[in-house]
Amino acid sequence: MKHFQSGGLMLAYEDVIPEGPPEGVMVLVHGFATSVEENWRRLGWLAALERKGRRAVALDLRGHGQSAKPHAVAAYDREAMAGDIAAMMDHLGIQRADVMGYSLGAQLSLAFALSRPERVDHLILGGIGKRREERPSATMTLAEAMRAADPQTITDPILKGFRRFAEVEGADREALAACSEGAGRPLAADDLGRLATPTLVVTGTLDTIAGDPQGVADLIPGAKCVTIPGCDHFSAIPHALYKAAVFDFLEGWLDELP
Predict the structure, then answer these.
(1) Strand partners, 10
(2) 237: left (phi > 0), else alpha (psi -120 to 50), else beta?
(3) Are 62 and 11 in contact, with CB atoms under 8 Å apart?
(4) How far apart are CA 176 and CA 198, in angstroms?
(5) pLDDT, tens digit, for every residue of 222-248?
(6) Which of 116, 131, 176, 226 could form a disulfide bond with 211, CB atoms 3.0-4.6 angstroms apart?
(7) CA distances, 241 to each of 20, 40, 203, 205, 248 (Å)
(8) Which pLDDT does position 133 carry in this prediction?
(9) How many beta carbons lie within 10 A of that of residue 247, not counting itself?
């Protein structure tokens, strides 16, 4: 992977350029505890975009993959992490692009589009939604799950899943704990209502982490919403229907949806 600097940190990125003139540029922003390699290469997104003739540019978020992994919570301010997207685009001389983020990456992509709308052509938000009912309070926070000396003390199944995934990835769990504490408040309805970028929201029908994607799409003027049947938070992103929805959106085939 190649590297660029943002906010004094060295961050890693991948830049896949198809043969011939690109049909467009897609910036990819992965989710919590994963990486470009896991979220975008292994799950087929880089290859799919290349086949479609689109340039794909993806960064390892700070605290993840091959990027710098500070342990200070302040390093993971939402605006700072959204600024990393701009810094990568500046490094590559990319003024405008389509932007797709998943889960944490969707939140950062949304913050990026709100603060720099002139740089986003289309916005795809995956793995986010509005839970109809709040999940019962977990016995610990995500940060505590990352820091737990004994993973057997983690009883919440979602937290246990994130901890297990972090261990499989060989992640820096202290950096991930700091990242989970530094994101700040969720974006409010008024924030979403200001978004003027063409937007697609995609989430699996069984995604209890994100909840109902229509609840988010309804707050964004003109946003489209697609659900992937039978998929949870982790199985939606590699699904062929997810990829089909994204390309249909970019090519204008979803314009007739209400």
Answers:
(1) 5
(2) alpha
(3) yes
(4) 31
(5) 999 999 999 999 999 999 999 999 999
(6) 131
(7) 27, 16, 11, 12, 10
(8) 45
(9) 16
